[in-house]
Amino acid sequence: MKLLFKQRIFSWFDSYDIYDEEQQPRYHVKGVMSLGHRLQIYDRDGNMLGEIKEKAFSFLPKFTMYIDGEEVGTIQKELTFLRPKFHLTCNDWEVDGNVMEWDYAVVSQSGHIMDVHKELFQLSDTYTMDIVHEKDALLCLMIVLAIDAAKCSQGE
Predict the structure, then answer these.
(1) Which of 24, 51, 119, 148 is the most exposed place for a label (fewest CB within 10 A)?
(2) In this predicted structure, what is the pLDDT of residue 156?
């Protein structure tokens, strides 16, 4: 399954549209005013599916992920040199990025979960997500949102 993640250019808060392979809206993400990033994920019918909240005043960006109001885990940027890495506390997934922080892979002990590629020469942050299993789409989207927000928090 492929998803295209596009940040809206003219928005007071973080706002994203997520499209499926047929260029149809799949999810909508709205930023909410708070200390740190707080992003709510809605389906195309306007039902809230999940949310990520950044822990304020953290040395490295850390986000808690919620699906249907229940905490499902956290994602935190690790202190590394050259290659960005994020620690997840849900599933057995790992997130590794390339040196330029444009491409990421999410893997588990049982196999590949997702590849993420940042599109260059776009007016806003745009990512292509290639997700192996559709059932993982929401959690994968939360990971990409957290990575993008972490980059923003660190001034990148």
Answers:
(1) 24
(2) 47
Q: Which two tokens stand for residue 47?
A: 């039902």
- Nearest by Cα to 139 from 97, 96, 88: 88
Extract the tokens encoding 94: 């790992």
Distance CA(156)–CA(148), nearest Å, equals 9
- Residue 12 in tokens: 């007071």
Answer for the pair 124, 7: CB distance below 8 angstroms, yes or no: yes
CATH of the domain at 138: 2.40.160.200
Domain extent, residue 145, equals 2-153
Per-residue pLDDT tens digits for 99-130 = 667 799 999 999 999 999 988 776 667 889 99
pLDDT of residue 153: 54
Residue 67's identity, in one-letter code, is I
Q: Locate 54 and state its tokens.
A: 């950044």
54 exposed, middle or buried (CB, 10 Å; 0-12, 13-18, 19+)? Answer: buried
Q: Which residues of the chain have pLDDT under 70?
A: 8-13, 99-100, 122-124, 152-156
